[in-house]
What does this fold into?
Amino acid sequence: MKVIYNKYFPFGKFLATNICGLIFCRSDKGRLSKRDENHEYIHTLQQREMLYVGFMLWYCVEWLYRAVKERSFMRAYFKLYFEREAYGNERNLNYRHERRPFGWWHQFVGEGTLLHEVGCFIGEIADFIRRDFRLAKYLYVAALALLIIVGQLRFHVYDWLIEPSYDNGTSMLRLPMVYMTAYFLTLLPTLWMHGELWRMRKWQSWLLPALLVSIDGAGQGFHAYYRWAEDHAVWFKDMYYMRLVGSFMFRSVFIVLSLCVFRWLTDGRFGLYGLTRSAKYLRVYGLIYVVLLPLFLAVSFTPQFLSYYPKMDIVFYDSAMGWSNWQVVGLFELCYANDFLGVESMFRGALVIGLTRWLGPRAVLPMAITYMCIHLGKPDLELCSSVIGGYTLGILAYRTRHLWGGIIIHLGIAMFFEAVGILRLIA
It folds into this structure.
């Protein structure tokens, strides 16, 4: 902890301030005592566990909130969670060694409250990133993700690499190869940067990811239902509807296969395919979803959204199969929702929870990049956000050992977009 003495900063009545572990102290107000140093070191610990940026944001927002409530900046300052922990323990010079992670949170926010659960939720993510962080690794993965994004947005990779494979019959081979390339281009360098290439000595560390990614890619590339729809359709609307529904119904076979593999990998220790009875953070997931709804609504007005959602044009498929619109839409949405359960079971379930015993926390980033690749061809914003969302949900699946977060957020977003798109069509 470095102390920088100067005559100007911090301003006002303050003796010292801590910014990312650097202590700025007013030399005209004296030197730091052992108690003051301990106070600032507690702030350093707080900043580290909040990844610095999170600390600054929380500190400023809470201070402004309390200043409005107390009508005094100084009274608000002394009521801040971070300051209450620092002032309350600055005389205990051993506190830095005894301190529980996120001590400010555990001391002043009541356990069992939603606010406490939100703090623990943020703490889970921050703690994972802090333990997993290697600057070179994260720069490499960021560059890889940027390469995929640029490849799609600038060179339309999906249009010339993946889409033609459905016509020439190679999709069940090409998609697994694309996904495996993305997965191992992430896994091997990140293991090397951690000095953990020894993990690859076990056959499960390379064969099982290849098997799981191949199952998902083959499921997406399966297109035999096209011929089946042509053979069983009475008229063209029936044929196109059966193709659309078949793209999700027939993939269910591969979903069931992935669930069986997940069950085998985890020995059934995490409930029914990751859907355990654990309720950890369910309220937080629900809160996140509600908070993000205005953002989803704003996105729903973009041109790409309007051209992509709803997945099924209910005007075009009117009276398909001789059914009412509600029957046509209902069956499709049921199959569409089923597909998301399969995606969560594969990516957050099998590829993270299932492979944890062999890859540990290193299973998360390769999953996130591969998850990003399955969004090629979708709206640009969805592609760009998928890597961050996949990574965050992967962390939470790794720490909580259940999939409820991914299901609530992922399925909730998809159904919201479908509902908005359908309402636009019938309005």
